[in-house]
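Annex B.
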Amino acid sequence: MQSGTPHDTAKHCHDEELGNIGGQLCKNDGHSFKESCSITNSEVLTRVKWSEEENKALTQMINKHGLKNWQTVAHAIPGRSAPQCRQRWRYKIDSAINKEAWSEQEELRLIRAHQIYGTKWREMVKHFPGRTNGAIK
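Myb-related protein 3R-1: predicted structure tokens.
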């Protein structure tokens, strides 16, 4: 019996990407997630907000190991992967990020950059040192 709800479908696809969960490989065979995988709700991976302790550990590990060895950094923070650590540092914690309100001059430059580049955010961000892709969007 197919569930047909987007939530179940998305959850099935997400868990299928994770591979072998609970000893059984999830397959896209037309059945709902619950029928194709035998895992409990407590085993489902969820997003967890970064704690202040994790932020401090991330900063300490970056200071110790630098910005190239993300696997080593992630091993010191249980439950966090190397890409998660990299993204957290790059977009939230790095002291080089300018988190101040946009000045009028920056806003005018942003409008001009948008006229030139359209929605090519990666190109635009090069002209705004200290600003992230997300800040520009």
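The mean pLDDT is 75. The first helix runs from residue 6 to 18. Further annotation is deferred to the next reporting cycle.
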